[in-house]
């Protein structure tokens, strides 16, 4: 089939929705995946597994015994009419079934616990890797796809491990005991019956190959659907304001239909296992009955032996069918495991070096020494930058979009590592100190401050969870946030909503400043912290920021030049290089790029205010 034939009408390929590629899946063999699943998730539960296995053996033996009891029941009650057996045999049947029920209950509870523990352990491990992952890696993939891995893959792994262990343990052992009963009754009939097993195995092998592909594509499409839902809900205001509800419904519907198509491929493969097994089992039963009938006519087959054999054979049908569908379930689990391990095996680029040591930043002196940085081979962002921020100094970075301002700021807390040159804090290369100690010395306030869906108090104390109420309120007062917090319905106990959406932009920003105040770090990074605010909110936030900057080494990225006129030094970046440096007055006197930027903003502001004044006059 050519590549075009594999595509859907909307142009996407199997496993790829309209929102692009999923997280790349590494190549693992089934043996590698099974070995890793066993060592990581099953070995810690070995005592419980052995207990469950013992209960499975008891249950399997009880199933075999229940079939074998048909022999004495028919022989002594119906053929020999032995009255002494009238109570004994029913009592034995009840005892066997009670033992089987108790063993089944215990085994089910233990295996469900292990299965749920696998989900929890997998999700914890995945979250640990996600929270430690590089910022650059996280930005490559939509959060919806990552959440899909987190929620769905671990559950499929649990199903595969639980069903595999139950199948290999309970169903296989039951089959062994029942075949033992069949062999005890008649060897030749047993050989006739078990001829179906290799034929079933051949069919199941073919179905498993089809199953793995459909499962993988279905999981990827689930990630695409999560992405679409996340984007649509987050951008609900934009969707409604542009009247694009129908378009979003169409996109989500297409993703749901693609996902359903992949799921149905898997359903067809999985469902085919049962009727194939059932048909072949029927053929085996028919052959056994023919053979037994032939012997009965010849007078060499007793009815009690045949009844016990047939009972065992009928009871063997269910575990055989379960084993037949086991392979398809295992493929689902192995695919989910491959996706989970691919996420957990991503190597961090930014991590503690083997010789890294904790370092206490006291002064906050920052030096960029011939620093270069590139996001990729063809995208250099910084080129040979030399820059120093003295302790307690405020340095502003200005320039056009794409000049490298945010990149320069992001290198300080090691969200990325320099490609060339070096970056030092208090004379030590940041790669030689632990990430924890470096980031403990840095406070960040961004253009769109992120607040957790928690209380105001918890958001302010995020960097210092052990802070008491007095410290939290002092930080809020310093950020000019205390008064508006008290006006909220529950004051500091008010929940701010998702991303702080129950608060205004200025309120969110001042809570973020209070959070930075409370952390009291010697290095402060301000990434266009007022560019999205109205004039009054900006004034309030600027006053709070002025207090926050006192005594700290501060790096400011500013779009509005009016907000950094009092900076100790201003650096103008263009194309990843520092083009000009100086104070506001010095740069205006140079009449270079900064002067052009300042005049253009000043003239734009003047025109804006004159336009407003004209329309406001009667």
Question: Tags for this entry?
Answer:
single chain; 618 residues; alpha/beta; ABC transporter transmembrane region fold; Rossmann fold; 3 domains; 6-stranded mixed beta sheet; 4-stranded antiparallel beta sheet; 20 helices; 10 strands; 10% strand; elongated; disordered N terminus; disordered C terminus
Overview of the molecule:
- It contains 20 helices and ten strands.
- By secondary structure, the chain is α/β, with parallel strands linked by helices.
- It folds into three domains: 318 residues, ABC transporter type 1, transmembrane domain (ABC transporter transmembrane region fold); 181 residues, P-loop containing nucleotide triphosphate hydrolases (Rossmann fold); 70 residues, Rossmann fold.
- It has a six-stranded mixed sheet, sandwiched between helices. The protein has a four-stranded antiparallel sheet with strand order 2-1-4-5, with helices on one face.
User: How many distinct domains?
Assistant: 3
Q: So what's the oligomer here?
A: single chain
What gap, in angstroms, lies between the N and C termini?
74 Å
CATH architecture of the largest domain: Up-down Bundle
Mean pLDDT: 83
List the helices and strands and how they pair.
Elements: H1 30-42, H2 46-68, H3 70-79, H4 85-132, H5 135-138, H6 143-185, H7 187-194, H8 196-234, H9 236-241, H10 245-298, H11 303-344, E1 366-374, E2 380-389, E3 394-398, H12 405-411, E4 420-425, E5 428-429, H13 435-440, E6 442-446, H14 456-460, H15 469-478, H16 482-486, H17 505-519, E7 523-527, H18 535-549, E8 553-557, E9 569-574, E10 577-582, H19 584-590, H20 593-616
Parallel strand pairs: 3-8, 3-9, 6-7, 7-8
Antiparallel strand pairs: 1-2, 1-4, 4-5, 9-10
